[in-house]
Design a protein that fits this description.
With 421 residues, this protein is of the alpha/beta class. The protein folds into two domains: 7-25 and 121-418, Zn peptidases (Aminopeptidase); 40-103, 2-Layer Sandwich (Alpha-Beta Plaits), CATH 3.30.70. It is 37% helix and 18% strand. The protein has 14 helices and 14 strands. It has helices spanning 2-25, 36-39, 50-58, 77-85, 96-103, 123-136, 185-199, 205-213, 224-231, 282-293, 332-349, 366-374, 401-406, 409-418; strands spanning 41-45, 62-67, 70-75, 91-95, 141-148, 154-160, 172-177, 215-219, 295-296, 299-300, 302-310, 314-317, 352-355, 377-383. The strands form three sheets. The chain has an eight-stranded mixed beta sheet with strand order 5-6-8-7-11-14-12-13, with helices on both faces. It is globular, with a radius of gyration of 20 Å. It binds N-sulfamoyl-L-glutamic acid (3K0), calcium ion (CA) (2 copies) and zinc ion (ZN). Zinc ion is lined by residues 179-180, 183, 309. Carboxypeptidase that possesses the specificities of both mammalian Cpase A and B. Thus shows broad substrate specificity, being able to cleave Cbz-Gly-Leu, Cbz-Gly-Val, Cbz-Gly-Phe, Cbz-Gly-Lys and Bz-Gly-Arg in vitro. The active site is at residue 382. Its cofactor is Zn(2+).
Length: 421
């Protein structure tokens, strides 16, 4: 059922692309937001700080990675012009289409990752992997769904705990991945957590302690439509958003101070489009409903969370909507705990720890809502690579999966511990 629907979507999307190609070539506005790879280029922009990067995003271009003061920016020709006019220096122009051409194979396998990427799980494979975890460990693993994507795909969640069928009074921890379609390495991160915590049980004492004393929720693909769209033609598209109309940036659609602070785009074609209203995306609404459902007798059971992204190798904590450490909803003591635990995790994986807004201002992201609304000790990890060159950074070959996901094992364990503090 699931796989036949997936095929139908693939065929429809392929037909759609063929029809749209001549329209794009003639330069007409393209309402589905699929113009992306056609005109976009990436640049490196030196000497930026959070304020400058927020300004770059405000112009409608998008900071896709940051290494020290050097930002990697994705922009249309018009946006590049505006950035130069605003005084930014744009170096290393690389057409996104050319980058993708380099990565994408001559021989495509529609519906799946290209050669060199077979180790990544597409949606069907991700579901099969979760099913296998449950089959092998039925006492400690259970799969369900938090709801449906815009196009009707399930968004599965795996629960791991002893007495998994019961809602026990144990601190709960959430790991979610792939809010952004092209950030496929994150899905592998969530699958690693699922496999490690179950295969290691009960032999590994630390894992046994975690599984026995926590209820762990893992959502490997929040953006089911987007991640599927990014690979279903057999070529990567560099897609970020969901697939609702021109696409909403799911990590700008959450309802805490949504759209407040110049940290998201009002333009439906923008890469950080926040949507017409908070929770307008079915995927974020499903996340909200799931997390809200973990309030038991007035107490949020989820105590800690990591939302995995790529790339730049960062550990980020709230808030994103302000550069202030201490503000409404964040005391100095709370901030210090974020910084302490964030720093501790970063020591284990070599990432750079910082407040979310040190990157650039974001509003409507998951971090701000998880903390602002529910006081969940919530982090965003930006995974490998530190510095990807451009759009390529989203597409590391599958031979890095093992190393770059294992790299976060210790940080995951720290968060599992801290959820009980
Ligand atoms: O909290 C944050 O600063 C989120 C960072 C995230 C974002 O949504 O902009 N960076 S990403 O889009 O390059 N994964
Ligand atoms: Ca339990
Ligand atoms: Ca519980
Ligand atoms: Zn992301």
């Amino acid at each position: 059922m699931f796989s036949s629907r997936r095929k139908a979507v693939t065929v429809a999307a392929a037909a759609c692309l063929v029809l749209l190609a001549p329209i794009q070539a003639s330069g007409s506005a393209e309402p589905t937001g699929a113009t992306a790879a056609q005109d976009l280029a990436t640049y490196t922009v030196p000497n930026t700080d959070s304020k400058a990067r927020t300004e770059i995003n405000r112009i409608g271009a998008q900071v896709i990675a940051v290494s020290g003061a050097v930002a990697t920016v994705e922009a249309t020709p018009a946006q590049a012009e505006q950035l130069r006019a605003a005084g930014f220096v744009l170096n290393d122009e690389t057409k996104v289409a050319d980058s993708l051409k380099r990565i994408n194979p001559a021989q495509r396998v529609p519906g799946d990752f290209p050669p060199g990427y077979e180790g990544y799980h597409n949606l069907d494979e991700m579901n099969a992997e979760l099913d296998a975890v449950v089959k092998d460990h039925p006492d400690i693993a259970a799969k369900s769904s938090i709801g449906k994507s815009f196009q009707g795909r399930d968004i599965p969640v795996l629960k791991i705990s002893d007495n998994v069928g019961q809602d026990e009074d144990e601190p709960e921890v959430l790991f979610d991945c792939n809010q952004h379609a092209r950030e496929h390495l994150t899905t592998e991160m969530c699958l690693r957590i699922a496999n490690r915590l179950t295969d290691g049980y009960p032999g590994d004492q630390a894992i046994k302690d975690s599984v026995d004393n926590r209820e762990i929720w893992i959502i490997p693909v929040v953006n089911a439509d987007g991640s599927s769209y990014d690979v279903e033609s057999g070529e990567f598209r560099g897609w970020r958003k969901n697939r609702q109309d021109a696409g909403t940036d799911l990590n700008r659609n959450w309802g805490y101070k949504w759209g407040c602070c110049g940290g998201s785009d009002n333009d439906p074609n923008g890469e950080t489009y926040r949507g017409p209203a908070a929770w307008s995306a079915p995927e974020t609404a499903a996340m909200r409903d799931f997390i809200d459902s973990r309030v038991v007798e007035g107490v949020q059971q989820i105590k800690a969370a990591i939302d995995f992204h790529t790339y730049s190798e960062l550990v980020l904590w709230p808030f994103g909507h302000t550069r202030d450490d201490v503000t409404e909803g964040m005391t100095q003591k709370e901030y210090d705990r974020f910084a302490r635990v964030g720093g501790e995790m970063a020591k284990t994986n070599g990432y750079t720890p910082q407040q979310s807004s040190d990157l650039y201002i974001t509003d409507g992201d998951s971090l701000d809502w998880m903390w602002g609304q529910h006081k969940i000790l919530a982090y965003t990890f930006e995974m490998y690579p530190a510095n990807g060159g451009g759009i390529d950074g989203f597409y590391p070959p599958d031979d890095v999966i093992e190393k770059e996901t294992a790299r976060n094992d210790a940080a995951v364990d720290i968060l599992l511990r801290e959820a009980g503090a």
